[in-house]
Amino acid sequence: MLERASATPLMAVKNLEAWYGESHILHGIDLDIAEGEVVTLLGRNGAGKTTALRSIMGMVSRRTGSIRIGGKQTIGHTSRQIARLGVGYVPEERGIYASLTVKENLHLPPRIRPGGLSDEQIFELFPNIRERLASHGSKLSGGEQQMLALGRILRTGAQLLLCDELTEGLAPVIVQQIGATLRALRQRGFTILLVESNFRFAQGVADRHYIVEQGRIVDMVDNDDLEHSLPRLNRYLGV
Ligand SMILES: Nc1ncnc2c1ncn2[C@@H]1O[C@H](COP(=O)(O)OP(=O)(O)OP(=O)(O)O)[C@@H](O)[C@H]1O
C-alpha cells in the first residue's frame, strides 16, 4: 500500500518525473508528508533519492507531475520561490565554504520567513558551533560541517527540511548527536524528509519510510512495523 490517508499533508507529491538533461531519472514519485512528521527515503545507490529531494527543491533541469506544499502547486516554481514557502535543503555535500568562517557560513543563507532559530538556539542544539565561530570552514571536522549545514538552514525559517545523508561518513558518537537533534526538531514541530542509507539511524528518528527503486516509490513502511517488515526491506535494500 503506497497511498496513506492523511488529512491535509504539508507536502503532497504525485507522479513526479524528473530529468537531468536527456537522462530521465524519476519515473513517478508519489509521497506525502504531514506537518511534524519525519519521513525517510530509503533505497539502493542510484535509486533516485537525491534526485527526489532536488526535484522537490526545483533543482533539476526538468520536472513534471504535482508537488503541493502547504496547498500550493510548486511544480512551476523556481528554487527561490520554493525556499520562500519554508522549504530548506541540506545537500549531501553540505556546501560549507572553506574560506569563510563558521559565523559567515552560518549567516550566509538569508532569512526567508519569520520563526527561524536564533544563533543562541542554534548553539544550544550544536554547542560545537559556538566554540568554532571564528574558525574557517576548512578547519571543521565532518561532523561540525554537518551541524553547521543543518544549523544555518534552521536559521532561515524553513519548516520543511529536506536532508540528504546527514550521517554519511560520520563517527558513531556524532551520528547519535544528529539523531538526538532530529528528535528535538521533531518535538519543535519541524517536518523532515530525510534521505538515509543508515537504516538503523532511520529507524531511530522517523515515523515512516518510503522505498525508492528505479525512480519510483515502490513501498512504504510505518516505523512501528519496521522490525516485522525487515525481510521485505532486506529484499529492496539488499542489507
Ligand atoms: N547531475 C546529474 N546528471 C545526470 N545524471 C545524474 C546526475 N545526478 C545523478 N544522476 C543519475 O541519476 C540517478 C539517480 O541518482 P541519485 O543521486 O538521485 O540516486 P540516490 O538514490 O540518491 O543514490 P546515491 O545514494 O548513490 O546518491 C543515477 O543513475 C545517477 O547516475
TrEMBL record:
It comes from the Bacteria. This is Amino acid/amide ABC transporter ATP-binding protein 2 (HAAT family). Pfam families: ABC_tran (PF00005). CDD domains: ABC_TM1139_LivF_branched. SMART domains: AAA. Keywords: Amino-acid transport, ATP-binding, Nucleotide-binding, Transport. SUPFAM superfamilies: P-loop containing nucleoside triphosphate hydrolases. Residues 11-239 form the ABC transporter domain. GO terms for biological process: L-amino acid transport. Belongs to the ABC transporter superfamily. GO terms for molecular function: ATP binding; ATP hydrolysis activity; branched-chain amino acid transmembrane transporter activity. It comes from Ancylobacter aquaticus.
